Amino acid sequence: MDTKQDISKRAYDQLHKDAEKIRQLIQVQMDNLTMPQCPLYEEVLDTQMFGLSREVEFAIKLDLVDEQEGRQLLDNLEQELSKLHDAYTKTSLK
Q: Residues 6-34: pLDDT tens digits?
C-alpha cells in the first residue's frame, strides 16, 4: 500500500506534467508569436489553466499538495502567459 508521501509525490508529479503541457503551448505561441487574442488560442489556454487550477485545488483539499506550492505553480504559468502577451504587444506595435 502506498504511503501518503508516495501519493503526494505522484500528485506533484502529475501537476508538474500538466503544467509542462501548458508551458509547451505557451512556448509554441512565443516561438511563432501567434496572436494571443485569437479565440482558439484563448479558449485552449484558458481551459487548460482552469483545469490545472481545479486539479491544484483538489490536491490541496486532499492535503496532497502544499497550498503555497500549488499556487506558485499556477502563478509561474500566469507569468509566462503575461510574457507572451507582452512579447506580442511589442511586435504588433512595430
A: 999 999 999 999 999 999 988 887 777 65
Task: Provide the sign of the torsion angle of the four alpha carbons 52, 48, 37, 88, taken in this order.
Answer: positive
Q: How far apart are the first and last CA of the chain?
A: 59
d(CA 76, CA 16): 11
pLDDT for residue 49: 92
Contacts of 51-60 with CB under 8 Å at 24 or more apart are 51/18, 52/15, 52/18, 52/19, 52/22, 52/77, 55/14, 55/15, 55/18, 56/15, 59/11, 59/15
Chain centroid offset of residue 85 CA: 15
Q: What is the pTM of this model?
A: 0.80
